[in-house]
Amino acid sequence: MAQDTSKPLVLSNARVIDPARNLDAPGAVIIVDGTILAAGPEAANQGAPEGAEILDCNGAVVAPGLIDMCVSVGEPGAEHRETFASASLAAASGGITTICTMPETDPVIDDPALVDFILRRARDTAIVNVKPMAALTKGLRGEDMTEIGLLQEAGAIAFSNGHKSVRNPQILRRIMTYTRDFDALIVHHTEDADLAGGSMNAGLNASWKGLSGVPREAEIIALERDLRLVGMAKSRYHANLLSTAESAKVLQIGKDRGLDVTAGVSINHLTQNENDIGSYRTFFKMSPPLRDEDDRQAMIQALKDNVIDVIVSNHDPQDVETKRHPWAEAEDGAIGLETLLAAALRLYHNEDLDLLSLLAKMTLNPAKRLGLNTGRLTVGAPADVIVFDPELPWVLEKAAIKSRSKNSPFEDARFSGRVLRTIVAGKTVYTYD
């Protein structure tokens, strides 16, 4: 039965979590005309608006919808891997209400008309908010800077070179200086391609498997270089996907110097390590590569210390043809929209982070970095809201995956915690049956 969005909606008998107010308490959330009217204990006390639909949450968590800052979608150019329709359904089922899309499409999103295409296409076919990132350089070749101002005017939320680092430091410095003048955010992949060269984390595991390794230094050196350039240009910078203990130390030094820098980490690097690769399972091949257990633990500690600010899915759909190859020849990438929250809840169940802090990394923090008024349950904010049971057990079965591509490193994994309802701008777009 379709929801009547003209009626107020009350999510009652809930555990309301709002990182923006450091709130974790029993209460309710009241939604009117697509925005938050009240949330928390005060909402439970003030009663329901006249004619409201009342949903008893039975003690489930009500929180802001997640914001995923690193999502690849196949549209345009590779719709067989993913479309905005399929990606948004996958996102909604995972509690994500806003996806920030990478510019690595065909054609590359390096022209204002293509940003406009993304926004129009998403408006017509997606059930969650879509915020496109535009390319830093034309064709992502790392040579010629794109029209930053025009792309921002067209609606680009940030600027990225995708899963490629801009190799030339002089070009990157020039880009940083230019983006500073537009107060634009650079979201950069920190990997020195000349040094990387391999297909899995460098070390004993790679040697035993006969595979060329990607040294940690490929990431560390790229990050150190980038932060030096940020210091020169005074730009806004976000390291997209960190994976090593030393990178967290480098980032902390940059923050201590007063640089306007933040960083993200993929859920894979928080919950998996290089041992999960097993017998060359290519669904675990990604960029940056899965590191060892010490690095994984260091990433968790960096989250706890607020050195790393954001958790992302790094959703990168690949089809059978790009994954069914020998390990070294298979494409990097794993899907992750549907499992972002469920996998992140492992950190909560393992007592690595409390639920309020964990959710902040996927709601308030990305919203603040991107300048969005979502990611919170404050009065007047858009009603992008999720309801989830943090204890409900389930298994990710391949047949149930909503993404067009099925390359999940969590296939057949057991989770505790499931999204029950996802609401975007006051409208229910997903319910768990």
Automatic annotation (TrEMBL):
Residues 350-430 form the Amidohydrolase domain. InterPro entries: Amidohydro_3 (IPR013108), DHOase (IPR004722), DHOase/Allantoinase_Hydrolase (IPR050138), DHOase_cat (IPR024403), Metal-dep_hydrolase_composite (IPR011059), Metal_Hydrolase (IPR032466). One of its GO terms (biological process) is purine nucleobase catabolic process. It is an enzyme of class 3 (hydrolase). Keywords: Hydrolase, Pyrimidine biosynthesis, Zinc. Pfam families: Amidohydro_3 (PF07969), DHOase (PF12890). Its EC number is 3.5.2.3. One of its GO terms (molecular function) is allantoinase activity. It comes from the Bacteria. Gene3D superfamilies: Metal-dependent hydrolases, Urease, subunit C, domain 1. One of its GO terms (cellular component) is cytoplasm. Residues 59-247 form the Dihydroorotase catalytic domain. PANTHER family: ALLANTOINASE (PTHR43668:SF2). This is Dihydroorotase. It comes from Roseibium limicola.
